[in-house]
Design a protein that fits this description.
This protein is α+β, with helices and mostly antiparallel strands. It has one domain (about 5-85): Alpha-Beta Plaits (2-Layer Sandwich), CATH 3.30.70.20. The chain is built from three helices and four strands, in the order βαβββαα.
Length: about 110
Amino acid sequence: MTYVVKEECIKCKYTDCVEVCPVDCFHEGPNFLVIDPEECIDCSLCEPECPVDAIVADDDLEDNEQHYVALNTELSAIWPVITEQKDPLPDADDWADKKDKMQYLER
């Protein structure tokens, strides 16, 4: 099992999760965070820290959400590791409750 970041993070990029990660498995893109499944130790510390509930165990993904495992794997291979909490994106609160945000993902 590993944890993955879902589209709820897109255009928000709250980094509360990064601060509690003991293995530095988070990677940062322009408007999204991902978890490297090879580094994640399944500690679950990050999941309750996310204010938009964007982090979930891969075992808990719905069938239509399985693509998040591949997305996290792909992007963690090219994006840099983030190890310290940062301010969220300037309009994060405006995007926090929006649905269907995959179209806004910046690679």
